[in-house]
Design brief:
Tyrosyl-Transfer RNA Synthetase, about 475 residues, about 15% strand, alpha/beta, six-stranded mixed sheet, four-stranded mixed sheet, 19 helices, 4 domains, Rossmann fold, single chain
């Protein structure tokens, strides 16, 4: 078990902030069955877009290792803070995300996370931070919303109807809809962050502490605007950790990419200010995107989603630069580190073809998310399509004559959005696979007959209007 603890604390880890070794001691005892309390590990995600990609999966797979050692993961869906937008890695202000989109994406996140994490209550829980960042008066209920309440006077009970947008009506709905009560069964009190709570935390933070962040310094140095809501984002993230410690009994570790280190350390400051045991912080290496340069990001559109089809996932991995192969083996697979080092040596030797290792890499990644049999099929399909130029084997999708090709492709997940579609068409990256004729208009209807459409390098879709 000691070996497993050492592995989880070292592989892909860039920094572990645990000054007194409190977390490491708890983890070692938990793994040995000597620690009976929950060992709570927090991961916060802002659901700004719905897909979980391999960059996120670096963190999720680390969390799975912690679960296998007995820890409990608290998956924090930042539906409130998503409307602010985390400025990490941003040279410009991020736009707000509409609440309806946030809620839709949050649901998708929870559905996807089960591909990697154990979801039994002993090992997993999730909660939204709107649970404590919204208050009774923030509710705005429909006028026809019915609220009935039992009222007892002189030992006689009557059911009365409460106006939905009265304070009492909102208070009833507020309590009924808090995940802390509804899903976690807490009854003594509901954790809510008020303006007074926020000011208490800010009272213990200096402007110099907030402004020292490299990102903010870069903005100011280049003469760009820095807005107060962006400066407060790390504070809100720190408050999340404190509230989780109150709800779950502790928040022992927060984990994230190294670009989140400042935000996570803020959690330690806020917890100390509120006289709670400060969390440890683990920062992980960041997986580069398909270009091998920028970090993998949905915003940069250089990502591999864990819900991508096997053929698309395989093809995307095969498109990464050779320089990123060993990094992907280390961060995106379960290949032992000793083997990764051997692969690095062979890649440095010109006698070995990088394609050999890239094919193995693509196979392993597809196998993790779709299974071994599907990975073999995806590898075979890639070889026949790209190595021998054969038509890919696809089941045709019935289409109506005149139906927009973009609507059909988006419906079946081949493209993520209409804006992506327009960009691909403008770049000349969409064409009829059989005739090699490019599609030049975003409004092009479904092509007649049995037709295979190629979208970009690695996406294929077969339509049939007959």
């Amino acid at each position: 078990m000691k070996k497993e603890v050492e592995e989880v604390l070292s592989r892909s880890v860039t920094e572990l902030t645990d000054p007194d070794g409190v977390f490491v001691e708890k983890l070692s005892k938990k793994a040995a069955g000597e620690y009976s309390k929950d060992l709570v590990i927090k991961l916060g995600v802002d659901p700004s877009r719905p897909d979980i990609h391999l960059g996120h999966a670096v963190v999720f797979r680390k969390l799975r290792q912690f679960q296998d050692l007995g820890a409990k993961v608290v998956f924090l869906v930042g539906d409130f803070t998503a409307r602010i937008g985390d400025p990490s890695g941003r040279s410009k202000t991020r736009p707000e995300i509409e609440q309806t989109e946030v809620e839709k994406n949050a649901k998708t996140y929870i559905e996807q996370v089960g591909k990697i994490l154990r979801l039994e209550p002993k090992y997993f829980s999730w909660i939204r931070n709107s649970d404590w960042f919204t208050n009774i008066t923030d509710l705005n209920l429909p006028a026809d919303y019915e609220i009935n309440m039992d009222v007892t006077v002189d030992k006689k009970t009557a059911k009365i109807k409460i106006a939905p947008n009265s304070f009492i009506g909102k208070a009833v709905v507020f309590e009924q809809t808090r995940m802390q009560v509804r899903d976690l069964g807490l009854k003594d009190r509901i954790s809510v962050i008020t303006l007074m709570n926020l000011l208490w935390s800010l009272k213990h933070l200096t402007h110099a502490r907030l402004i020292e962040r490299d990102l903010f310094q870069g903005r100011l140095a280049s003469g760009q605007e820095l807005y107060m809501h962006e400066m407060l984002y790390p504070v809100f993230q720190g408050i999340d950790s404190y509230v989780i410690s109150q709800i779950y009994g502790s928040c022992d570790l927060e984990i994230g990419g190294r670009d989140q280190t400042f935000n996570m350390l803020m959690g330690r400051d806020i917890m100390r200010a509120n006289k709670a045991e400060p969390q440890a912080v683990m920062s992980l290496e960041i997986l580069p995107g398909l270009d091998g340069k920028e970090k993998m990001s949905k915003s940069f559109d250089n990502y591999i989603a864990i819900t991508d089809s096997p053929s698309e996932m395989f093809g995307k991995v095969m498109s990464i630069p050779d320089s990123a192969i060993s990094t992907y083996f280390k961060l995106a697979t379960y290949t032992p580190i000793a083997e990764v080092k051997e692969i690095e040596k062979k890649l440095a030797d010109k006698k070995h073809n990088p394609k050999e290792f890239k094919t193995r890499l693509a196979h392993e990644i597809v196998s993790i998310y779709h299974g071994e049999a599907t990975a073999k099929k995806a590898e075979k399909g890639f070889a026949s399509t790209f190595s021998r130029g054969e038509k890919p084997e696809l089941e045709p999708v019935k289409a109506k004559p005149g139906e927009k090709l973009s609507d059909l492709l988006q419906k079946h997940g081949i493209i993520k959005s209409k804006s992506e579609w327009r960009r691909l068409v403008e770049e000349g990256a969409v064409y009829n696979f059989e005739t090699e004729e490019k599609i030049t208009s975003p409004d092009t209807p479904v092509l007649p007959g049995d037709t295979t459409i190629r979208v970009g390098k690695n996406r294929f879709f077969r339509t049939d209007t007959e």
